[in-house]
User: What shape does this take?
Amino acid sequence: MPLDAVCLSGVVKELREAVIGLRIEKVQQPARDQVLLTLRGNRKLLLCAGASQARMHLTRIARENPAAPPMFCMLLRKHLGGGRIAEISQPGLERVVSLTVETVDELGEAGRRRLILECIGPRSNLILTDGQDRIIDCLRRVDLEMNQDRQVLPGLFYRLPPAQRKADPLQIDEEGFARLLSQAAPETEAAGFLLESFFGLSPLICRELAYEALGSADARLFTRESAALSAAFFRWQATVKEEQFTPYLLTRDGKGADFSYRPIAQYGGAMEGQAWEAFSPMLDAFYEARERLERNRQRGADLQRAASTARDRVVRKLALQEKEYAETRDRDRLRICGELITANLYRMERGQSRLRAQNYYDPDYKEIDIPLDPRLTPQQNAAKYFKRYNKAKTAEIRLSEQMELARRERDWLESVLDELSRADLEQDFLDIRRELREAGYLKGPAPGRKEPRRGPSRPRVFRSSGGFRILVGRSNSQNDQLTKEAFKSDYWFHTQRIHGSHVILCAEGRAPDQQSLTEAAMLAAWFSQGRGGGQVAVDYTQVRNVKKPGGARPGMVVYDPYQTAYVTPSEDLVRQLEEK
Assistant: This one.
């Protein structure tokens, strides 16, 4: 869910105690909608203005920066670099947080800047203002055509978003609540009444208050006494005024589904709930997977489109080839037709459109109906059938070769799509881009435009419980490099008949224990298309048995002999091995 106003209040309270007085040592913009402030003591404050991920909290997740900083990042570095955070404030129950920074300009003059985060869904924004609240610049500029009521442009004075025409849930008293309740229709859902009457309340909290008061999140007002709903509402109001917040994460099947600032009971056993000590680590845990998917979607959109289009084209081509190949399998009928025409020349005349003759190749000597071209002589019709027969015989050989090439190309393109689904570093996307470019599926950079330079790509590194290093390739080209550079006595792992990363267990002159082999197989299963399955087949063998065929695409190998292990991928084990 988007970060609601009350939950944002809990985050602001937490940040006041953690970052007030700290200096900004570094300003980065790892993604279009994200700004990362590195504070003294290596604390990292994340401000995200994404449409569905707008938030502000301390983070420990390492984020990779683009090769060149965006212009907005350069502007923030100029105005905020070296500044000290003097205040963090939230106006009422608005989903707006203001970060006031005391700065010193080039002439040594003290000043103030405000970095304002607006967490308003698709209209979320990051705005930098000067000491007079005049906008210096913003992440998303809003002109008159986009919004006639409120423009957000450099040079204008900053104004808060227009207030909602609803009651303030923290200011209303019991008499006012009863008056609003009396105006509602009896068939109205209690959660709907709260949502429509008060600003600052999220749908989740409205349903939870209805559940607490009336026993059902979908209960309607006429089903119970209004006193129960009123009591639940004012208990909630008291806890918020006293700033009694409990970070609470809801999970389903081990994945974050929702979060709040208080325990949630409305889902019963459908979801699991967990209280956290602080908001920042909870928000890190909740948004980590979503952020990675969104970042990868943005980075790899053109690569995904190019690889998918190429794969679909190869699949269609292969389907046509298989159809033609099936037709060549029936070529003996063409030869028989030619021979029967030759055997019945004495019965035929020019201009004849069909020949009905006894098929002496059939054990029962059944008659066969042979179509003829009336424009040709009988001899020419026979020659035409023999020519089609010879052509089909040659086509069978050629088509079988072309189909094998098409299948390899399809498998390689599918492996590229699988790489894209797991890519998480900028270098991963650069490697895949280069791979597609070398294969002819992407054009090179425009004339005069330099490609971003990066250091050599590094594989994922793990340590088995037996102390062996395990390397996992990030791309097809890196898979080739890993296998090429590994010692012949190292062990190579790959999922059977499905795409995935190459995994190398570095034996280091020792015989690996069974647990280490199993853990390497589980890593191979996790970093593959079989991640969500159970009992995934993983082949493994020593590197000396792995060969790359001549002319094969990156990542394509053959191996023999080998053994097969059946394992179930486990994210917990992956994290444990990575931490070691």
Remarks:
- The domain at 5-138 is CATH 2.30.310.10 (ibrinogen binding protein from staphylococcus aureus fold).
- The mean pLDDT is 87.
